[in-house]
Amino acid sequence: MHRGDEVFITKSGKYYHYFDDDCPTSSSILKGKRQAQRIKEDEAKARGYSLCRHCAKEYNEDLRERGLRRNANGEIERAGCGAAILLFGLGAGVIFAVSSYLI
Ligand SMILES: [Zn+2]
Known about the structure:
Distance between the termini: 44 Å
Bound molecules: zinc ion
Shape: elongated
Order of helices and strands: EEHEHEHEEH
Largest sheet: 4 strands, mixed
Oligomer: single chain
């Protein structure tokens, strides 16, 4: 959801922003308080814009929430599969324990 093909750029800024109101700049753009232009992310990079640090932070947190992370090459990969399986196992164990108690 954070990452689309298009991003916002503001007239004065050096940074580009994702369409996400977790970023104060994007938030004011989305509310119509600030003028911005929509361009392709690749084009923004080509024009020398860099990703806003708020957007970068939110984007990385979003990836983590989904069990994804960026590797050293900046590629997105899945992380924490083991933890998910462990949690699932624990959940199933609790449900089993509760249902056998009720019976
Ligand atoms: Zn931003």
